[in-house]
Amino acid sequence: MTSKVSFHSELTSDIESPVDEDLVHDSFSQLIQEQGHDLYDVIEMTPYEPQDNDDDEVVCLERYHTDDDALATDNLIGGCWSSDTLKVLSGMPSRTIGRSRGAIISQYYNRTMQLRRRRQSQPSVHTHSHTHSARPSIRGYRVETDGEEENKRERLVVNLQNLSANDRARMLRAMPLGLREKQELRMLVLNQSEHSPSQSQIPCCSQIKYHLLTVVRVCGSLLSSLKLWQTSLKCVSGRFGTGVLSYFLFLRTLLFLNVFLFLFTAVFLVAPQAAAPPDQSRNSNGSRRSSWGLEVLTGAGYFSDSLLYYGHYSQQTLGVCANSTGMSKSFSQSLRIHKSRGLLAIKAFSSWDHKVSKKSSVRLQRENIGTQLKELVSEVSRQEQKVPVLQRLFRIFIHSLAWIMCLGSSVACVLAVYYCSEYMHKDLRSRARSSSSSPLLKELSFLSLPLLVSTINLLLPGFFNALAWMEEFDSPSTLTYVSISRNLLLKVCVLGVLCYHWLGRVASDPQSLGLECWESFVGQELYRFLLMDFIFILFHTFIGEFLWRALKRKRKPVFDIARNVLELIYGQTLAWLGVMFSPLLPVVQIIKLLLLFYMKKMNCQASGKPWRASQMSSVFITLLCFPSFLGSAVCVTYTMWTIPPSTGCGPFRGLSTMFESGKLWVRQVVQLNPHLWWLEAAHTYLVENPLFLFLCAAIFLIVIYFHSQVMDGQRKIIDLLQEQIQNEGEDKKFLIMRLQEIHEKRRVRGARQGSSFS
Amino acid sequence: MGGSASKLPKELLSEYQELTFLTKQEISLAYKRFSELQGNENGPYSIRVSMEKILTLPELKSNPFRKRICHVFSTSEHKDGSLSFEDFLDLLSAFSDSATLEIKSHYAFRIFDFDDDGTLDSRDLEKLVNCLTGETEDTRLTAEEMRQLITNFIQDCVVKFILAVSGPDVSPSLEYLTNVASEM
């Protein structure tokens, strides 16, 4: 990406130091005068004819702006250029490159030279001159005659021959030439290499690499043909755009994650279950749907000791490793540079989503873009006007009011959940003591907490949206981020309270609730939460849409991507929390995701808000990792380390913490096989010693820091390159102006001479 | 479709696969679609399809830049926007997900350069914005808004000015066109 742009030109050798500015400008003006003489020959100028402004094809670009600020640019744009200047300008290499085949060929000739040099790693003097001579934009882009193009072409063919097959294919593919020309080039290269087989010195190792790469490519194409939902996703992107597509891709990623998790748990749990059939005493409960899960869960709670511990522990580490690599990659993407200036250009050039093909979506897109552009224009013109202090204060007041209301409502909901859980706890305790209540009522009371939480998740985001509607935001992306952060805050708080309820209250004193097995109780709770969440999503999707249609009648409701993604992440967090207590929860999550995919696909509509899909998907993955996965990992680790497992059930019964079972397992192994004494020592010193874990965490953080520094460096390079481009632009402007001045002077002189003759 | 759908010979298929960013499966699909458009089975890779027929493709039908796309990728001498099979493959290759940013920005520049003069000047920008916002009166920008937009566009950053007077030469180092490419 960073091709070295060196600015050694032959002129600078004359100049002593940058301080001698006069010298600089003088040498340039000499050059321009000399060039003027050359141009005289190249371009037929008729200086002796008196030329009025009308005859001369003076092209005036429309003046669009009259402010003093942009006078410099304005002079160039609004200036009237003579036809001679225009002829010179149209011959400029950068203008012809897109259209002239010769320019492309010479550009790629130079590139193949560089590639050969890099591959051979023998910088010869011959090639040295190419890279250290004039700027690449000028080098080799002279106005070419036909003979020269042929020459360059032959040399390009020779270069291509000497590259490895892989490089050659890549170079040919990247050339912006037509397919027919590429075919001709390729034929020439192959013919020549046939005639001179000795010249094709492709070393054997690169041949092996080439074969390996073809194998990898074949595997990749096989895998892509096996991709799940490929055609449906293409339909979705065609009808609804890439924003909605990113939601579905995220859903698919979660599905694969859950499948992987499930396979892992299945391998470590199903096998021992088959080997050693589980214990009895299943809870016999009513056959309600919410308690059907009960049987499955308690059935799954009994396993043989060692493998379960091992399974969970390594599963967690594996999960951490997999997620950490994903996270550092997504970090590097999410730290991508997105400057706020140049917003208009981005909107104009890149806002069209070429994947969309449905007519109504296209119309929607057009409307969106039109309104966005209009908003941007009015915004920019508004920014230029001074915002009166009073208005600014008013805006700040509105913002703070909205935030206070959001936070207030979140706190109110969290308190509601807290008190409800406390009430439930007391209620259960009294029920356990009395033991005379009907089981049906008990089940219903269990459902109350999930119901409350799901209702909160349903209603509050709508409330936040309404609040955001009354505020004024600088840009639509700010609005999106603010709404995501508000929703996230709410969900994190609610989940935190729930975790405290389960781990702090229930787990610490399970006897008072009459529970033999608090782990399965927590597992059941999580299962209920997951189910209730799914029911509410169904409800919201279908009933909500029905209401909308009844009210609005025009079209389907707009797909709120942020809200849907946060719902997915919330569901996934519940699943991760629950894996420890109920290993079959990933199955439930998988089924839920599958059903969700088809439901949402039916009910979709193109997103109303502008969406930077590439940036957003990395934000989603970051959100998935940071609060969601880390939070659940922290919870689980805390559980394993501190909370004593129940004495009545589960593989860890009788131990003071679940963690101890690891120690026991290792001791067992060592007893069986005394040669493995080092395992016990390793276990004691490495795993139990918190220092080791801190070390791991430190290394992990260092990796992330390294990535962010690399991003920083690249950002700085981009800044420097932009500065260089700016300077180039200034140079070009200067040269064009001087060129124009010369032509003007010449014309005037010619006119004067002509009039003096007459 | 009738009789034996003629397939691409294997060597040609692998040659196309080597020279474009498409997979073999995609090339065969493209061949099928192209021969359907062409309505003829005698090796459509030698005959051109007129622009009107190409524009009946559902993917291009609603695209505001469809005519420009046809003109840019067409290699016919009459400059009528007709595409041969190779041109069609070029089009698909440039728009595919695995195309390099350089190819995408090269073609993006040429597509947005409505008057084909190698520059993106104010007239091109005006046409671009009109294409984006559509034909109906309420979505189009008024003349005043257009003027304001183009002024701000040009005033926004010197870099964009350079874009207007230079060309795709500097594009790989501009993040704006890479944004175009990544969104394309």
From TrEMBL, chain A:
Q: Which family does it belong to?
A: Belongs to the TMC family.
Ranges for domain TMC come to 517-614
Tell me the first and last residues of the signal peptide: none
UniProt topology in membrane: Multi-pass membrane protein
Using the record for this protein, list the coiled-coil segments as residue ranges, or answer none: none
- GO cellular component assignments: plasma membrane
Name its cellular compartments: Membrane
Q: Which PANTHER family match?
A: TRANSMEMBRANE CHANNEL-LIKE PROTEIN 6 (PTHR23302:SF4), TRANSMEMBRANE CHANNEL-RELATED (PTHR23302)
GO MF terms on file? mechanosensitive monoatomic ion channel activity
| Region of interest (Disordered), residue spans | 117-148
Q: What is this protein called?
A: Transmembrane channel-like protein
What is the protein's species of origin? Danionella cerebrum
Q: Name one Pfam family in it.
A: TMC
Bilayer-crossing regions: 249-271, 396-419, 440-464, 529-548, 574-598, 619-641, 691-708
Primary localization: membrane
UniProt keyword terms in alphabetical order = Membrane, Transmembrane, Transmembrane helix
Source organism superkingdom: Eukaryota
TrEMBL record, chain B:
Q: Which organism is it from?
A: Danionella cerebrum
Q: Which InterPro entries match?
A: CIBP (IPR051433), EF-hand-dom_pair (IPR011992), EF_Hand_1_Ca_BS (IPR018247), EF_hand_dom (IPR002048)
MF terms per GO, please? calcium ion binding; magnesium ion binding
Matching SUPFAM superfamilies: EF-hand (SSF47473)
Keywords for the protein's UniProt record, in alphabetical order: Calcium, Magnesium, Metal-binding, Repeat
Protein name from the UniProt record: EF-hand domain-containing protein
> Which Gene3D superfamilies does this one have?
EF-hand (1.10.238.10)
| Domain EF-hand positions | 100-135
